[in-house]
Amino acid sequence: MAENRIEENRDGTIIRLQGGFYDVMTTQGEVRSRARGNFRKRGISPVVGDEVVLHIESETGYILEVKERQNFLVRPPVANIDQALLVVSAAEPDFSAHLLDRFLVLIEAKEIQPIIILTKMDLLQGTAEAEVRTAIAGYRQIGYQVIETSSETLEGVEEVRPLLREKTSVLAGQSGVGKSSLLNALDPTLDLETSHISKSLGRGRHTTRHVTLIPLADGLIADTPGFSNLDFPHEMEIEELRWCFPEFVARQDTCKYRGCLHLNEPGCAVKKSVEAEEIMSSRYTNYGMFVEEIKNRARRY
Ligand SMILES: Nc1nc2c(ncn2[C@@H]2O[C@H](COP(=O)(O)OP(=O)(O)OP(=O)(O)O)[C@@H](O)[C@H]2O)c(=O)[nH]1
Ligand SMILES: [Mg+2]
Ligand SMILES: [Zn+2]
Questions:
Q1: Which of 44, 71, 97, 241 is 20–30 Å from 247 (CA)?
Q2: For 25-34, 43-52, 194-203, 283-292, which range has the lowest pLDDT when averaged over its residues?
Q3: Within the chain, how many helices (H) and strands (E) appear?
Q4: Which residue(s) pair with 71 in the sheet?
């Protein structure tokens, strides 16, 4: 009887979006699916990581329902994430504390656990080396986990593996920093496409084109296309920003004013800590720049 059954409903997880199809992983394998019903009209657009209910009819799936999301990121578009691996390269492209802080804010705002992955440690040399090493120590001091890796020498790669166990992770980072290379280093059979960066531009070429959820090290990890810039979402308010800097949060109770934005208020404990070099000055500078950016954006709308 079971042999003849061609229609059934099954739960699954969207692992890929491609050419108008959703590839859904179920306990009985992958099913190429379409969205059924009026998802668009209802303002639902399924993304990778979504838990869905499929109706399966002769090997084609139809997504009947998208289950409620635990969380989701707009960029990269992934739902139900336990942690974000923020990938920044030590070189090629140059290490950017500004980009890393931008990233951290976006992830902190969603209350998703960030882990910082430094890639291309084998390329670190010259004057950049001291700067990057100081930054790494600084982020660790804040309490962030920072893993130093190289897909070339395989340094640190094995430290990533245990973090993936039983979690859904997302890799996020600029194009060309080595996200796909890191996954290949963890599992060469993945054979993900990677590219050569253009040295003159220091930019990658967006080799990974689609978000894909990949089973790896007893977990799921989303490889994503890199981005070239990252804007703050419209709903982000200035007041929210200071909550996205854990080392500011740790000190804000000693600011003279409640609700201190740590800008020009007198008796600001955060500013004092920056002066005492207990808070990285780059973090404080970036915070100020983000505040300005959101202010200016607010003026435009
Ligand atoms: N020397 C060195 N090169 C690396 C390392 N990791 C990656 N690369 C090189 O950097 C280039 C870009 O790597 P990718 O893995 O394609 O980067 P990506 O982050 O996946 O880029 P997108 O898919 O465009 O977002 C490739 O030429 C890699 O060989 C590393 O640890 N050391
Ligand atoms: Mg890639
Ligand atoms: Zn303050």
A1: 71
A2: 194-203
A3: 8, 13
A4: none
- Cα(74) to centroid(ligand 1), Å: 23
Stretch 168-186: mean pLDDT, rounded?
96
152 lines ligand 1 (CB under 6 A): yes
Structural domains of the chain in order of their starting residue, each with its CATH number: 2-66 (2.40.50.140), 72-223 (3.40.50.300), 238-300 (1.10.40.50)
Give the distance (Å) from ligand 3 centre to CA of residue 278: 14
Average pLDDT on 85-95 reads 96
* Annotated binding residues: 119-122, 173-181, 255, 260, 262, 268
pLDDT of residue 1 exceeding 50, the answer is no
Band of residue 42 on the pLDDT scale cut at 50, 70, 90: confident
DSSP 194: -
Q: Is the peptide bond before 76 cis (omega within 30 degrees of 0)?
A: yes
Q: For residue 62, what are the CA distances in angstroms to 212, 224, 285?
A: 19, 25, 49
Ligand 1 mutation pick, 118, 121, 181, max ligand atoms within 8 A of CB: 181
